[in-house]
């Protein structure tokens, strides 16, 4: 049996996934996190009487805290199995990636473990966020200079 | 109304990401990186600001907003410091999220044990 | 090849299994074979500070149970063979510090069980040693940490994923007649069918299992009908179906064939996706369930094909495909 034939055979027996169900749960969980964020945002806007821009960091800190706590309690990965992108796309997923890496490395100590591994998965988001923003930022800056 | 808007947009972004995840070999790391780049690209023409005006938290919570905030902070600082502002202001708006994640992540790593 | 090897296979004359020790994880205990194992873990830490230490403790417990049954001490054994999944075969190498006798560490990924049994069989049959203990282990959390993601990372596992079994198994083999013997072995070749999805081990390993099975049957002029049961190590549900289809296309009559990954768990109710994998998977099923059945003469002859995916996460990131291997051992009950 050659490789092409094997691939055809394997493809024909591939377990039928739950793509519709996954998509639905991703939408639902992602939406619920968005709605919770809205609630927290409005709460801070009302309590401190601030504008949305100023309440945003407070809202983000709150959600990051909840996400870190759920990760520590071993709940976040169970939710994620069902929610898929619904839990890794919101900022809570970023907090989870940092916390899980740190937690996972605790047995290797403070420096070689937690300290150096915390950004193992989350670091890519920061790296490409900064690279792309700097690149696009320069473009926009040049446009404004001549514009 | 704001809640429904937030629900719909946040859910929609997650739905797109889930479709990519299910129909490709890309890992969450790939997809989040892609979305961050997308977020900062959308900020190039101030599109993301409009999305935030319409969907509020729904547009602030997906990781795309991270790219948008990085870009936004960088651009705001260029007004004062010129091209150096891009590096100086980069973290202005995202500092809260990153600092909180580092701090709480560290505390959780100290206080909890991995379950399974 | 020498006089003894027929192709890739050898028939062994005096290699007998004396006793075994099995330790399983919490999920394995709740599975259909749960009651077959000597000891089980309540949680993945097993009272230790790290998962790696927990795996080593499991190995030590399995070894102690195995030797205690025969009232033997560590120094009564001539040679220890060990295999596990981690980098530098950490678990067995670190455990071997406590052993007063020679030790050989083997790596064959999830095929470690059949590999160590086959090596022990060859050494005993050649007359070099009298008593050998083989030790294998795998631990779900240590394997996840090394090959995939941190255990608490929220990632949705794909449908084709397999679940690394938690457990440790020790087996004592000698040249003194006992009720069950290792009757033949077939050593595997490394097979690579250009599969590169690390979340789809069954599909990557099925060709290796196919190659070893076909070699075994051709070398020894046997078919599925010569066995009461043929099991593959950890192809899981998906890989098991692929292998069956491959064999049928080669005009083999596939009867009494199962996969350890599907036997160890209840796939419909336990969260193990396509089934179990890891060194402990085939070892637990064989020594926990099949070996007692052979001893009680409920089974006459069993073929165990342990499959292993020899992947390195670093090479996977460099876009290399996954090399796979499978080794087979045939166990027989003595009249």
From TrEMBL, chain A:
TM annotation in the entry: 23-45, 57-76, 121-143
This protein's UniProt keywords: Membrane, Transmembrane, Transmembrane helix
InterPro entries the UniProt entry points to: Spore_V_AC, SpoVA
Keyword Disulfide bond recorded: no
Record bears the keyword Transmembrane: yes
NCBIfam families: spore_V_AC
PANTHER family: STAGE V SPORULATION PROTEIN AC, STAGE V SPORULATION PROTEIN AC-RELATED
Name of this chain's protein: Stage V sporulation protein AC
Encoding gene (name): spoVAC
Automatic annotation (TrEMBL), chain B:
Keyword flag Nucleotide-binding: no
Keyword flag Hydrolase: no
Signal peptide residues on this chain, from the entry's feature table: none
Chain segments annotated as transmembrane: 29-47, 54-75, 81-112
Keyword tags: Membrane, Transmembrane, Transmembrane helix
NCBIfam families, per database record: spore_V_AE (TIGR02839)
Name of protein: Stage V sporulation protein AE
């Amino acid at each position: 049996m050659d490789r092409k034939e094997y691939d055809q055979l394997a493809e024909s027996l591939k377990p039928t996934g739950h793509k519709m169900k996954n998509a639905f749960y991703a939408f639902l969980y992602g939406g619920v996190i968005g709605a919770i964020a809205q609630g927290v945002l409005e709460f801070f806007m009302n309590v401190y009487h601030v504008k949305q821009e100023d309440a945003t960091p407070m809202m983000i800190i709150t959600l990051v805290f909840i996400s870190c706590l759920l990760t520590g309690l071993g709940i976040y990965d169970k939710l994620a199995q069902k929610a898929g992108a619904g839990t890794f796309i919101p900022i809570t997923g970023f907090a989870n990636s940092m916390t899980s890496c740190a937690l996972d490395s605790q047995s290797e100590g403070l420096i070689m473990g937690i300290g150096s591994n915390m950004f193992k998965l989350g670091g890519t988001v920061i790296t490409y966020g900064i690279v792309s923003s700097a690149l696009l930022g320069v473009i926009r800056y040049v446009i404004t200079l001549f514009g | 109304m704001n809640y429904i808007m937030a629900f719909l947009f946040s859910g929609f972004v997650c739905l797109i990401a889930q479709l990519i995840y299910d129909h490709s070999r890309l890992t969450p790391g790939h997809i989040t990186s892609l979305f961050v780049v997308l977020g900062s690209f959308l900020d190039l023409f101030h599109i993301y600001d409009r999305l935030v005006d319409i969907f509020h938290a729904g547009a602030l919570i997906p990781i795309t907003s991270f790219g948008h905030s990085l870009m936004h902070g960088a651009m705001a600082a260029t007004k004062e410091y010129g091209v150096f502002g891009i590096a100086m202001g980069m973290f202005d708006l995202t500092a809260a999220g990153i600092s909180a994640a580092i701090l709480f992540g560290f505390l959780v790593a100290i206080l909890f044990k991995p379950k399974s | 090849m020498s006089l003894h090897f027929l192709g890739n296979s050898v028939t062994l004359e005096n290699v007998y299994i004396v006793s075994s020790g099995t330790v399983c994880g919490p999920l394995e205990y709740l599975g259909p074979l749960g009651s077959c194992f000597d000891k089980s873990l309540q949680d993945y830490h097993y009272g230790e500070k790290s998962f790696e230490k927990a795996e080593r403790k499991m190995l030590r417990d399995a070894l102690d149970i195995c030797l205690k049954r025969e009232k033997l001490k560590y120094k009564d054994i001539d040679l220890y063979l060990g295999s596990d999944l981690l980098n530098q075969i950490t678990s067995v190498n670190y455990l071997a510090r406590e052993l007063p006798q020679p030790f050989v560490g083997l790596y064959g990924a999830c095929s470690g069980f059949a590999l160590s049994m086959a090596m022990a069989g060859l050494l005993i049959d050649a007359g070099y040693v009298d008593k050998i203990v083989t030790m294998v282990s795998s631990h779900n959390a240590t394997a996840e940490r090394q090959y995939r993601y941190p255990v608490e990372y929220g990632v949705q596992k794909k449908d084709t994923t397999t679940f690394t079994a938690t457990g440790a198994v020790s087996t004592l083999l000698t040249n003194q007649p006992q009720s069950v013997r290792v009757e033949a072995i077939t050593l595997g070749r490394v097979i690579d069918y250009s599969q590169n999805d690390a979340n789809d081990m069954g599909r990557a390993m099925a060709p290796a299992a196919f190659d070893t099975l076909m070699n075994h049957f051709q070398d020894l002029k046997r078919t599925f009908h010569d066995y009461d049961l043929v099991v593959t190590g950890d192809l899981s549900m998906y890989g098991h179906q692929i292998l069956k289809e491959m064999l049928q296309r080669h005009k083999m009559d596939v009867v009494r064939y199962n996969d350890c990954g599907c036997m160890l768990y209840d796939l419909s109710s336990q969260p193990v996706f396509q089934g179990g994998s890891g060194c402990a998977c085939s070892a637990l099923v064989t020594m926990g369930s099949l070996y007692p059945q052979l001893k009680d003469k409920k089974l006459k002859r069993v073929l165990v094909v342990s499959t292993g995916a020899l992947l390195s996460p670093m090479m996977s990131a460099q876009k290399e495909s996954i090399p796979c291997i499978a080794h087979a051992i045939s166990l027989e009950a003595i009249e």
